[in-house]
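Quick one, T. Sequence first:
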Amino acid sequence: MQDENLDKNSNGQYGQEGEIHDIIPVSGLYENWFLEYASYVILERAVPSIEDGFKPVQRRILHAMKEMDDGRFNKVANIIGQTMQYHPHGDASIGDAMVNLGQKDLLIDMQGNWGDIRTGDGAAAPRYIEARLSKFATEVVFNPKITDWQLSYDGRKKEPVTLPVKFPLLLAQGVEGIAVGLSTKILPHNFCELIKGAIDSLKGKNIRIFPDFPTGGSADFSDYNEGLRGGKIKVRAKIEEFDSKTLAIKEIPYGTTTTGLIDSIIKANDKGKIKIKKVVDNTASEVEILVYLAPGQSPDITIDALYAFSDCEVSISPNACVIIDEKPVFMSVNEMLRSSAQQTVELLRQELLIRQGELKEKLLFSSLEKLFIENRIYRDIEECETWEAVLQTIDKGLDPYKKEFYREITEEDIIRLTEIKIKRISKYDTFKADELMRKLQDELAEVEYNLENIIEYTIAYYKGLLERYGKGRERKTEIRAFDSIAASVVAANNQKLYINRKEGFIGYGLKKDEFISDCSDIDDIIVFRKDGKYVVTRIADKVFVGKNIIHAAVYKKNDERMVYNAVYLDGKSGRTLAKRFQVLSMTRDKEYDITKGEKGSKLMYFSPNANGEAEKLQVTLTPASSARKKVIEYDFKDLDIKGRSAGGNLVTKYPVKKVQFKEAGGSTLGGLDIWYDATIGRLNREERGDYLGSYHHEDRILVVYTDGSYEMTDFELTNRYESKDIQLITKFDPEMVLSTIYYDGATKVHFVKRFKIETSTLSKRFPFISEARGSKLSIISTENQPQVEITYTKNGSKEKETTVYDLDLLIDVKGWKAMGNKLALQKVNKIKLLESKKAEKSEENAGNGQEELEEINSPDQLGLF
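Structure tokens:
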């Protein structure tokens, strides 16, 4: 373009020799183009449609597979080529989407190596793997008669706008996508639970569904928020104690792989958060990762540490977003399920209406055919010379019957009659024709009934899907509540704490100074100084906390058992005061004072007591004091435990020369009140769950498992218990008698047994019933006089009888290894433990009444050998 040919018009626009062209600023172009691009990515690539739950590439893959479907497997490379007629983004995106769709194991039958979501292994090349539509997909996804169609991107083919899916596929498969300024993350849900939820929705009931992950594990959905933004799910691996020195990871969290999980464990070990010897991956058909513990490491604490410091626990944030009317909409998974159920109702209604129309047309033509042949109308057209005359003759022959038809007879109907072959007319069987019409009428009546009762029909449809395809699709992810794990509690002691008392330094880098204890690099340290000041600080390589340190230790927040005893001189009053206090919480790096902080105050005695011990002191007064008694004995047990800011109680108003330790004392704290929360399988002190009792240092917990074994444990809050495997958990009493009935898998009969716990080894399970295959514990009781109600069937009789037995009268207390006595009842149907009736020892009971009781409950009558 030559400059001299450019003219500037009055509007500031340029043209060639007087021509005017609009000029659009670059900013305007950018705004419009970017908006169009963002809309395209949201609608055509990243976010699924509410109608069928598919992204466009997934929809096009399934449409292409339906076109190719002949019941046999096709090479994935061929399917990709077919899909490229509809999808404009190349073979790589199609192949990845197809593998992802196949790994959902719902719509596609796979053959070959399709990869493994557990290990992260990729699929083989498309030329080596094959696929076909599953029976489920052909039943619920496709119906061309009720599908809306549109032209493909090049205008050569037709593709579905959405597929008529009659199942909540979006929730069953889950989906994840990132668009421009928008993302979606809908987690996969359980097949059977979705169907049951849809049925409940159609019945007007409230529904509540939770994700179910193909990798199993356990999940806490307390903050799921129905899949909306702001929700959160905690997912944990399934970790078992393989033995006392080995942990086995059997299931992994959703979104992780065995390789990534092992890397995170090794990384946590390298950082010193956990202590292990090695990790071995034995994953084959099932996940199995063995974690070998370092010597002296607790399996329970290591499990918690794995959850705290590795990918054995992950947090997932859902973000349910779908396309509705070509707009992204955030909606809950419960609303999606209700929407899917209503859509299924409408799709089934459309199918029924189409079938109704087809049946009516078949009945219409069958009736016309019958009239045409039986009334010999075909003979009347033999003399007709023109085509119009033929049509008029047939139409005239049908005139008497036209009122019986549901619609008018058209010229096309008459033309169809003329196309009936002579062979068919000659072999026409009226009886068979009437039978066929009767079947069509019955089917039509059924279709019309279903249309009138469309909700019941839809529910029956869902139940049919559940019956045909629900087997093997049971929930894999266990729903449970998780306890919060304090990292500082479960972190391995990966450092050693040293101290320089005189100079006032503390840390794990002072290796030439005094060793205090093992610690973790995330611990806090509490330090008390001779001037009565104390501070809590984060551990480091070397940190200055003040000179003349008298006590330093790892600080445990909210530790109610740790009590500090102190005696100090108050600088203002000149009195000597004593205090017992706890430091439950503090501001890090802020100095606090044991004394009242007055000038001249002085700390005279200090002792930390891990279990609230109260010692005796000897207080010596100065010789110049006016007190007649110069030596005073002071006992801390007479002093209440208060908060850290308490001033303390008076020891003496006279000047004190020195304070000395005289005699150790016991703990003044009561036992620890312990509760067991069966929901999470953990002990606690927050009054959650069942109260187990008050525990002192020597007390133990008895756990009886459903497999007929028992275990003794301490009452550490870090202990883990599998609630589903526990029959009884209680405080152990050495005099406790366990009464039990169990089934012996070898002899196929029930045994009665009463015994005391004779072992003392902690954290080891001891079987007390037969170890034969099929053996199981029926009931167990710690009551003194337990009663059971047994329902049984005698030989030669089908009638059931029920009898109540006193177990303490059936058998004496024996050793824990004893088999017990057999129940001679032929077939035990039910055993129920009753509330125990305590015997009242009175003269009346000790007389004839007692003898009668013994006679009734004699071993012979109770059916014991």
